[in-house]
Amino acid sequence: MIRVVLPTHLRTLARLSGETLLDISEPATQRSVFDALEARYPVLRGTIRDRLTQQRRPFVRVFACERDLSHEGPDAALPPEVSSGAEPLLVVGAMAGG
Amino acid sequence: MSAVRVLVGTRKGAFVLTADAKREQWDVRGPLFAGWEIYHLKGSPADPDRLYASQSSGWFGQVIQRSNDGGTTWEPAGNAFAYDGVPGTHQWYDGTPHPWAFVRVWHLEPSLRDPDVVYAGVEDAALFRSSDGGQTWAELSGLRGHSSGSAWQPGGGGMCLHTILLDPVDSDRIFVAISAAGAFRTDDGGVSWRPINRGLKSDGIPDPDAQVGHCVHRIAMHPARPDVLFMQKHWDVMRSDDAGESWRDIGGNLPTDFGFPIDVHAHEPDTIYVVPIKSDSEHFPLDGKLRVYRSRTGGTEWEALTNGLPQRNCYVNVLRDAMAVDRLDSCGIYFGTTGGQVYASADAGDTWAPIVRDLPAVLSVEVQTLQ
Fold it and tell me: How far apart are CA B259 and CA B277, in angstroms?
């Protein structure tokens, strides 16, 4: 199981609390995780990735294992600690006032 | 017993303000969608329990929310706003070509007759239509595809389609306004469009009376007289008596003719309201005095309405979608400010009082008159 932690606004939008657990076949990637996430919570379509281009939105970052994965390719394998569920995949709103 | 429901969009959520017909005691509910920008909410004239809201964020994009019970509960609707075909380019601020890209929904205009039909005016400027209650959206691409489209440019707030007026008599006629392109009209239900800007003059564009390029801030219409339009432009308050074919200046004795909103009294088609703002760079009232100006003559002759409004040290703005009127016998006027106040007048503007004083910056105000 892959553990995904969403920012507060997206948890509220999707009406979920805490971590989201997703069953992803290996190798897990950002694309496969976000595809599964959007399939379970359609309201999240367009909030993390652009609805049309599927590019990560500019003010959204992806962290795990104390690393910034934002600029890894969408099809790059996630760290084994994330794939195993030992560490969560963090979706983070960029640190900017507003 | 009649009642009013005021729908307020702010920088950090939505608020629903309700009162009976006296409009003295208000219930304030919110924030809904806390932390998100709510550019606009509006109820369906055909079913007042059906509301639509534009929820957006620089971080997480666009969401459309829909309520079927007057705003008590909400459910997300569709947010796929795909331009028709290859979007092409418009002008950027520096005059260079810039690819069309969806940013947000500025304005939602439900159909006058069918609660499942709703129009969305978006940035970068385009008009979308949904016929399934906001689940799916299709662009009325004849507008953006007009031959002038590549010359449209953004105003300070972005290149937004912010005004949608549905003709109550001719269901095929729609008026829209875009900053900074101007006003456009369709007479065939949105298939084809043409600019209706003759008579407008604008500094800041190479040809001041060009066909397009004007920063129209808002257009208003009285439903009993849909060929008469009132416009607050970047500078200038204008009037058309021929459905936009030509415009004339009705700024008259206004202390400044810059501003954003304009609206029409519910029962007096020649009584109109504006909020003069000092200038295009100083977006606050003249002399720190918040004054609504009313004309009972369809323009040119204006009177200041100040009773109950701050007359010193007031430096808020009133944005283009942040004024509305109710339809009670004594017409109520409402507006919200960037300082978070929502003011109401239950006597057509003679006296004012704040409903709330400390909301986030107000982006939009709409009113529903409920029976």
Answer: 5
Contact flag A46-B82 (C-beta cutoff 8 Å)? no
Assess if residue A98 is contained within a domain.
no
Nearest CA in chain A to B60: A47
Q: Is residue A16 part of a domain?
A: yes
User: A9 vs B36: CB contact, 8 Å cut-off?
Assistant: yes
State how far residue B80 is from chain A, nearest Cα, in angstroms: 6
Q: How many interface pairs between A and B have CB atoms less than 8 angstroms apart?
A: 49
> Tokens 């810059």 appear where?
B258
Token pair in block for residue B53 = 């809201």
pTM confidence score: 0.96
Q: How far is A91 from chain B (nearest CA, A)?
A: 11
Q: In which domain, by residue range, is A39 found?
A: 2-93
ipTM score? 0.92
Task: State pLDDT tens for residues A43-77.
Answer: 999 999 999 899 999 999 999 999 999 999 999 99
* All domains in chain B, ordered by first residue: 36-332+342-354 (2.130.10.10)
Give domain status of residue A88, yes or no: yes
A60–B contact, CB cutoff 8 A? yes
